[in-house]
């Protein structure tokens, strides 16, 4: 019985909010509760920048005791952590020399992310813009501080990723979500470009890119991320051979050189759909040479039928070449890339007009571009197969 009472007492004590060491100010005029922490700051500070707090403070209270006047009746903020809100308050109270340090050599990126996140939530527009610009400036430094923070030489697949790798994944996720939430197009574009780089270094980042693309509906990232996973791994879903549940996102090494990535049922269906659609797309391309418009000079000074025949024979030969067939049937972009290289090696074709060769090359490049742009559409469940 004593043990039960002791446990209940400890739980009650744990639920009692604690005053923040730094931002519970003796002369504060507004008490806020974030998680289990109390902050006491100035209403005039919180009302700046046309924030939502300014609107909140002007609402009539009626007969209800005014919130924020005491520890017993604080304004309760949901969805933030004490650390996030503490970092945000720092941006409101910091001195000029402290603000300048943010753009120095030592930047606390997580602090800036917290500031931007909370500022966006409560409509502190100028603070949000300042913090996002500071993040963008930091991300664009050379060499890239994000890439530099990722451990070099970590295994391509591991069941126990190193802490720096986990921290990098977490930080990248926060930055992508922040850029999307705030509508910061430049930061989002920078992070997507960074993820594209990282996808080729580790399946962990390919999975991260794939999951973020699904969560945030990032079309420009989805196709490439799914294609990368499709080409570089064997994807598995559910449990292992012994019936043990598998954790989504885990990468398991295998003796055959292809690593096994645990994906969700929805992701598995999208990957299989993408493989099927891309394989069919290749079969259509292989069967019929890419069309191009003959140059006017071809019909006037050249035997156009011979020009077409030369192109058709080249296409039939190169689509069956070892370099093409060594790639997966779904790797349409890779196969077209090989054909383009072979075309550049072709030299002067006896029966193909020079201007038509340039037109044919452009047609291959345009096909690659068109498939690249349409790539996200291949990886979706439902529709035609």
Automatic annotation (TrEMBL):
Ranges for domain BTB: 28-93
SMART domains membership: BTB (SM00225)
PROSITE patterns: BTB
InterPro entries: BTB/POZ_dom, SKP1/BTB/POZ_sf
SUPFAM superfamilies from the UniProt entry: POZ domain
A Pfam family per the record: BTB
Entry coiled-coil feature ranges: none
Protein name: BTB domain-containing protein
Lineage, opening ranks: Eukaryota, Fungi, Dikarya, Basidiomycota, Agaricomycotina
